[in-house]
Amino acid sequence: MNSSLKDKLAVLPDKPGCYLMKNASGEIIYVGKAKVLKNRVRSYFTGSHNGKTQLLVSEIVDFEYIVVSSAIEALILECNLIKEHDPRYNVMLRDDKTYPYIKITNEAQPRLEITRKVLKDKAKYFGPYPNAGDASEVKKLLDRLYPLRKCRNMPKQVCLYYHLGQCLAPCVYEVSAEENQRLVDEISRFLDGGHEEMKQTLTEKMLQAAENMEFERAKEYRDQIKSIEAVMEKQKITFTDTVDRDIIGFAVEKGWMCIQVFYMRKGKMIERQTTSFPYYGSETEDFMSYVSQFYYDKQNALPKEILLPQESEPELLGEWLGIKVHAPKRGKKHELVKMASENARIALQEKFALMSKDDARTVQAVHNLGHILGIPVPHRIEAFDNSNIQGTEPVSAMIVFTDGRPDKKEYRKFKIKTVEGPDDYDSMREVVRRRYSRLLKENQPMPDLIVIDGGKGQISAAMDVLENELGLYIPVCGLAKDEKHRTAQLMYGDPPEPVNLRRDSYEFYLLQRIQDEVHRFVITFHRQSRTKTMLSSQLDEIPGIGEKRRKLLFSHFGSLKKMREATVEDFRQLGIGDKLAKEIIGHLRKLDT
């Protein structure tokens, strides 16, 4: 850290505000907010961080800050600064999908229109609707029911809508402000759940027309009722009240975040919006940053209520937006938030599954990875991971990816033989030595790239054995993990240094898959080894059972459970006398009690 940075950190105020981190080029790479600037900004330069934050901190050479008077002002300012500077490490609202709204314009002669932009123009907005088709159906229905102005520009004479009884023709005839307001109020009530009231009114008119033998008019009323039922009641009701609410949940996996927004309008789930992106800050901070940006431009068409997960900051958002925002702990609303988060989790899993099945991009990722590391195309990648619990039963495993695909027949398992205790570096040395000395001895082809699960220490240990003991110069990279055991950073070089690799790239996802697979394989092997050891140790306690008989017993019975349930006669088949058989059965049954 340079002296200028230290001096600025020393004089940070203990007030709320926003901070802007800059790299060597003066580019703003991250914007954050803080309740206490002094504590938050200093935390970046003290203590240990996960790989994501380390990558950010490694680029910071300067920062600015702006003091505000409250946490809400910091939240609003953060949104403004992110939109203005588009920092590389911030979560950005990049999903440009916007939903249509029905708008009653704020004009002397108001009219209905469909729009995807919600402006601060004192107009009334209703929605959002799932798609333009649904919004158009509702507008057509309203145009038939309520005779507001239809034409965008006032014509010089009445049009067809006037003759159909669907427009009061303010272009020719004077329409009072009171009459327009009455129509606007009726449309608002209709869209706020009052269509049942309109249906009842039309039903009464239909019956009256039929009684008066005005069958053509009765048919018109009947058609209008059918239109209301078709347009307004086709959505499944998911809540008993008619409050407009947004339900938001999120999930994280492999350094990605997925956010699901469920739109509930008039008690009906009308649409959901799914967005996924790589994130670099903390889960809660980045989630709230996204949600704040999400509502930044929609304050003229907000729902009555927003439901968020428990780990969010509902109070701050609610105070800013001026509506009810809370994180329910139980009940139907809590279940709705859980449902949104579960959908986010499933969407992420689907995303990763589709990415892994995309053959063309997987092959391209292999080529790109070679280019990024400055090596030939790594068609064959061998990856290593170690596993031990408090030094017991230390094992290692190696997996092979060929052209970006797992090659399971090439996987190998290693029981650590020469290392005592949980020494990850020496375990890596032993396994690399055993693997590649054997390939040399058998004159087998070498891999194009070796991937080590770990950081600088593990990479250096592997390279030392390869180069100084075996005379091999195979590229070695490492995958460092963050505090939640997720792939966070690619390390490469001599000495190993972080490689700038975008989290949303197929190359990064390929490395994640490799790391996940080798970790799964070594953990499975470790569990099997520990289970066998525990089972064997129970038999070792019985006098007269040596290694040969122990293997014979497991080969025949398959498990301690079956031995415990066996009879003396079952042991005779193995040449074990009745006395020893009774001891075995008695010992195992005693352990089970």
How is this structure best summarized?
The chain is 47% helix and 19% strand.
What does this 3D model show about the protein?
- The chain has 593 residues and is of the alpha+beta class.
- The two termini are 62 Å apart.
- The protein contains 19 helices and 19 strands.
- The strands form 4 sheets. Strands 12, 13, 14, 15, 16, 17, 18 and 19 form an 8-stranded mixed beta sheet that branches.
SSE diagram, text form:
Blueprint: H1 3-10, E1 17-22, E2 28-34, H2 37-43, H3 51-59, E3 62-67, H4 71-85, E4 101-104, E5 112-115, E6 124-126, H5 132-145, H6 160-163, H7 177-211, H8 215-232, E7 245-253, E8 256-265, E9 268-278, H9 283-296, E10 305-307, H10 314-321, E11 324-326, H11 331-357, H12 359-373, E12 380-389, E13 392-402, E14 405-406, E15 412-415, H13 424-441, E16 449-453, H14 456-469, E17 476-481, E18 487-492, E19 497-499, H15 506-540, H16 547-557, H17 560-565, H18 568-572, H19 578-592
Parallel strand pairs: 7-10, 10-11, 12-16, 16-17
Antiparallel strand pairs: 1-2, 1-3, 4-5, 4-6, 7-8, 8-9, 12-13, 13-14, 13-15, 17-18, 18-19
Helix pairs in contact: 4-9, 4-10, 5-8, 7-8, 13-14
